[in-house]
Write a structure and sequence with these properties.
With 280 residues, this protein is of the alpha/beta class. It is built from eleven helices and ten strands. It has a five-stranded parallel β-sheet. A five-stranded parallel β-sheet has the order 6-10-9-7-8, sandwiched between helices. The protein starts with a strand and ends in a 10-residue tail after the last helix.
Length: 280
C-alpha cells in the first residue's frame, strides 16, 4: 500500500521504474497543475482529481462520483499506466488526495499501486531533487475492469451503520453537525462513527505505524484479522464528504489487512436526499 521515498528513488533508477502520478489537490484549491509545473518527482505525471478521478458532480450522485470505466481507462492511458508496471501516487497533503487515485486504480483492477508515504515533503526531506515543467508520457495500455475494491451505495451505507462499522472520515465538527461548509445539510449518517482521516497521519504527514493504527481503529470498533475470532470481524465501510479522503482511510485499514468498502457518494450525496436522515 505504501512506499517510502528512498525506495521510490531506487525503483525509479531501476529497469522497471514505476509510473508516478502527482495528485495535488485540496478542497477549494485549483492550482495543482501550476504546483506540478513548479516542481515534481522526476517523471511524475499530473492528474487532475476534479476532471480525471471523478465524473461530473450532481445532487443525485455527489460532488465526486466515480468516473465511468471507459473514461478512467482513457485517462489512465494518458498518464502512461501499463498493466505490467507498478504505479506510485503522491500529493502534498499526506496522501489524502492521492489515495483517491490509489483506490480508483485498485478498483479498476491494477494490483500494484502504492502511495508515497509522506508525499512530496518526504521526497524532498530525503534529499531528492524535483523536476520542473510538464510531463507527457508514452500512452499506456491498462485495461480497466471495475470491481477490484468494494463499494457501497446509500442503502448499503445505511445498513452497514447498524450491521457493521461505518466510519465517517470527515473532521469531527462536520460529523457532529456543528459546521457544514460545502454540503446542503449538516450532520452524519445515523449510526456512523467519527474517524477523521487526519488521525491516520503522524505530525510529518506519514501514515502512523501499524501498532498505532491498530489501536486507533480498535477503539472505533474495527477488528483486524489478528483479533478476529472464528471470522467474527464486523464489515467495515468508510465515507467522507465526497469519497476522496475516505479512500485514505480505506488505505490505512488495508495496511492492517482490513478490507473496507467505500461509500463513494458520501455525505455530498446523502445530504442532498431529503429522505435520508441526518444525525447530529
Amino acid at each position: 500500500m505504501l512506499v517510502a521515498a528512498p525506495d521510490l528513488a531506487e525503483a525509479l533508477a531501476g529497469d522497471r521504474s514505476p509510473v508516478v502520478l502527482d495528485v495535488r489537490w485540496a478542497l477549494g484549491v485549483t492550482d495543482g497543475r501550476e504546483q506540478h509545473h513548479a516542481g515534481h518527482v522526476p517523471g511524475a505525471v499530473y492528474v487532475d482529481l476534479e476532471t480525471e478521478l471523478a465524473a461530473p458532480p450532481s445532487a443525485a450522485a455527489g460532488r465526486h462520483p466515480l468516473p465511468a470505466a471507459a473514461d478512467l481507462q482513457a485517462a489512465a492511458r494518458r498518464w502512461g499506466v501499463r498493466a505490467d508496471r507498478p504505479v506510485v501516487v503522491y500529493d502534498a497533503v499526506g496522501g489524502t488526495s492521492a489515495a483517491r487515485a490509489w483506490w480508483l486504480l485498485r478498483w479498476a483492477g491494477h494490483d500494484d499501486v502504492r502511495i508515497l508515504d509522506g508525499g512530496l515533503a518526504a521526497w524532498q526531506a530525503a534529499g531528492h531533487a524535483l523536476d520542473e515543467g510538464d510531463v507527457r508520457p508514452e500512452p499506456g495500455d491498462v485495461v480497466v475492469t471495475p470491481g477490484g475494491m468494494p463499494v457501497l451505495d446509500a442503502d448499503g451505507a445505511a445498513d452497514l451503520a447498524t450491521s457493521g462499522v461505518l466510519l465517517d472520515a470527515r473532521a469531527g465538527e462536520r460529523y457532529r453537525g456543528e459546521v457544514e461548509p460545502v454540503d446542503p445539510r449538516a450532520g452524519h449518517v445515523p449510526g456512523a462513527v467519527s474517524a477523521p482521516t487526519t488521525d491516520n497521519l503522524a505530525a510529518d504527514g506519514t501514515f502512523l505505524g501499524a501498532v498505532s493504527l491498530r489501536a486507533r481503529f480498535a477503539a472505533l470498533g474495527v477488528v483486524g484479522p489478528e483479533e478476529e475470532q472464528d471470522g467474527a470481524g464486523r464489515a467495515v465501510g468508510v465515507y467522507c464528504g465526497s469519497g476522496v479522503t475516505a479512500a485514505h482511510e480505506v488505505a490505512a485499514l488495508a495496511t492492517l489487512g482490513v478490507e473496507a468498502a467505500l461509500y463513494a457518494g458520501s455525505w455530498s450525496q446523502w445530504s442532498n436526499d431529503p429522505a435520508r436522515p441526518a444525525a447530529t
